[in-house]
Amino acid sequence: MDTSIKSLGPCEIVSPLRNIGGVEVNFRTDEDRVLFDHTLDLDDGDVKDDAQLSFEAAGPREHLFFNPAKTTAAIVTCGGLCPGLNDIIRGLVSHLHYRYAVTKVYGFRYGYEGLIARYGHTPLLLRPESVAQIHNFGGTILGTSRGPQKIEEMVDLLEEMKVDLFFVVGGDGTLRGAIEVAGECERRGLKKAVVGIPKTIDNDIMFLDKSFGFETAFGAAVQAVKCAYIESLGSVNGIGLIKLMGRDSGFIACYAALAGGNVDFVLIPEVAFALEGERGLLEALRYRLAKKKSAVVVLAEGAGQDLLQAEAGTDASGNVKFGDIGLFLKDRINAFFKERRMEANLKYIDPSYIIRAVPANAQDNFYCSQLAQHAVHAAMAGKTGMLVGRWHGAFVHLPIALATRGRRKVDPQSELWHSVLENTGQPARMM
Fold first, then answer.
1. Of 71, 39, 67, 66, residue with least CA distance to 53
2. DSSP state, 47?
3. Contact assessment for residue 206 and residue 362, using Cβ atoms and an 8 Å cutoff
4. Based on CB atoms within 10 Å of each CB, which residue in 132, 136, 270, 354 is the most buried?
5. How far, in Å, CA of 51 to CA of 216, rounded?
6. Would the pTM of this model clear 0.85, i.e. be above it?
7. Beta-carbon count within 10 A of 62 CB
8. Which residues are part of the catalytic machinery?
9. How many Å apart are CA 140 and CA 385, to the nearest integer?
């Protein structure tokens, strides 16, 4: 596991942070590390000091690679919407301007399309006053898009605009594009820092405590869960069925169910389930209705895909197209109770686009500000091909290639999933 961070070269410029109002700055060095594993088993014997099992600590550096007075920065947001995108933009612009006096900050519009001339998306010049209130709104003022673009053309524009710092805000596919941009810059001998800020509403980036926007998303999802519960109580054998985001990871479904309470079944991509048979979901649901007269089912969008006919092809981001498990389950549940001449009143709720478009809450707002600050510190120090994130409560630098080599998932043996089973009372296996 290679945790080393690429640097553009020696840092020889004294940081302006040394002279801010006489306040002492806690500068970090590349030798400051955050351990990969924060637990210790004394039965394992001697503990070996291995730098490969630690991450480079984030934070301001005493010496910089870039001269702030001559530095130009640019920001791009890609992929689906997520709470906190505007907060990240605001944090980057404000920190560049007020802490480092970088006055040229551009925003590329509509994702990577904004770096391709033929689309005609003119970059925006971002100033602190123009982004001062954007954190009060959901979405991104820069717009977004999905899908790859030609790396050579993207780097051509970065070179033409003399961009030194390129901040890429996006998910798995977007960050892989950032690796290619950094690689193309290196091949051309261009000294440009490419720094990622991982964005995924599913909270599935590896080696991160959490991704920004997740707390806001599951908070909004909790309201949908509570509404589904109220709906289920309002009719005979009421069923509330809620589909939440989570293509490969069921974190939002788990957290929303635990926080919302009154949930009887949680279905996630990491745990397979059967529909039919004595141990299947449908029989378990029938038993729950007979016992409680109502039931609430929360499912992640990637759950139960083995029960559907796979859709052909991939979307613009390269993700395999999923079938709609929510509508599928709705129809199968209704048909199941109709065949048995048992009254059931199902209410189906899909709040996905409402959840991802809401403004970030106070906790995410603060977290986004911290991520933006550490991204700026890293870029000014000439770090590249990396992203910033939080690991065991400390902010770290991660190679993008390491963070994107897989997806973080709910472990069926973890305390989180066991808590779900305890709170819902659902069978551990529905197969």
1. 39
2. P
3. no
4. 270
5. 35
6. yes
7. 14
8. 202
9. 23
